[in-house]
Amino acid sequence: MKVLIVGGGGREHALAWKCAQESRVTQVFVAPGNAGTALEAKVRNVDIAADDVAALLAFASRERIDLTIIGPEAPLVAGIVDRFTAAGLSCFGPTRAAARLEGSKAYTKEFLRRHRIPTASHATFTGENFDAAYVCAQKLPLVVKADGLAAGKGVIICETHDEALAACERMLGGAFGAAGETIVVEEFLAGEEVSFIVIASDQDVLPLATSQDHKRRDDGDQGPNTGGMGAYSPAPIVTPELHARILREVIAPTLRGLRADGSPYTGFLYAGLMIAPDGTPNVLEFNCRFGDPETQPIMMRLDSELTALCEAALAGKLSGAEPRWDERAAVGVVMASGGYPDAFRKGEPIAGLETAARLPGKVFHAATKRDGDAIVTNGGRVLCAVGLGENVAAARAQAYELVAVIHWNLVQYRRDIGHRAVARDEIAVGAGGTGGTGGAGGAGGAGVDD
Length: 450
Ligand code: AMP
What we know:
Bound molecules: adenosine monophosphate
Distance between the termini: 30 Å
Shape: globular
Largest sheet: 6 strands, antiparallel
Number of helices: 15
Strand content: 25-35%
Structural class: alpha+beta
């Protein structure tokens, strides 16, 4: 079996690494991949950009690829699945119409309202109908969002009305290009964030292991928002009750709504949720693909064949599929370039990767490339070091042992990934619970098997 993974980040390295371990998979291509995917057995990089749909289609046809899995959102929103399917090729991901759930926040908010799925109240504006008086009448803090894809940077949380007005003006003034021509002004929601990721096949759903990521750059969940500085799985906040509630109140009505609107959904579906103090799972966003960095710890825990799950979804046979999960917890720590998410340097040689490769756990590459004999940084989020352990604390210790042997000029990373889960485990132990995977894994694991 030949597999093509489209994309070149940490998510795609984890997907390629996972597929390459399957005995029936003979070859995995990654387009364009990175220096880490190039090092994996059975994996080959192909020099085609992830959004060059025509070249990807030509390559997949020529190589007779059996299954293509799309990593990033851009080719999905551009309609890569429609093009591959029309050419008779198996391609895992939502169609262009279904991928609008990620491509436009204004569309998604309207979709959520119409289908009565819990989310923050909002208003949508363009330059033409912008209403400063509305903005100034809203409670603070207030959230201003660019409608289109903005690489995780199109969301500004504003503490004052002046800040909110300035954010609106900046976006409508073109600071985010076409993505900011329409904006969403949204109520701020307090609570704890959860990533809930499923494989969907029209109305059938297979929830993946629970996970949680850290969006803020600095320790203590402070500093600017980023694409994600680390993630762990399972997420103990997702109790079996909450798991069932998310499926019932968010995932099921979303898939029903998409079908009713004429764009049924197949692919990874990622709901970014804010769990309110009363337990309501409010939708912050949908992503039409797997999360990054959530993919990395989740793939470390998946014992079943990923290709088989994707094929079952494409064939409409997902309801019989039962993935097996490693009982252990996984924690992924993102190592980023100094300055990220603002300006940063590229091309810094990375030391210690060979030492790390001999240690337990796994280092997934994101923005890396080969430069002669060296592997150098090539973007903001450079690596994700993932550890496994009997609980989140043990997995985290293993991940930081990997981090400790890797270095480059101006590297930055958080030192507290998984802190909420570790605190929950400690409370469980203090209260006479089992702690460890008994507490953390039990909650996530039980949910996963639902
Ligand atoms: P989004 O791309 O919409 O998920 O927003 C990115 C991040 O901004 C989220 O992960 C949250 O941390 C934060 N955020 C977005 N919308 C809200 C909101 N309404 N209330 C509080 N935080 C939010």
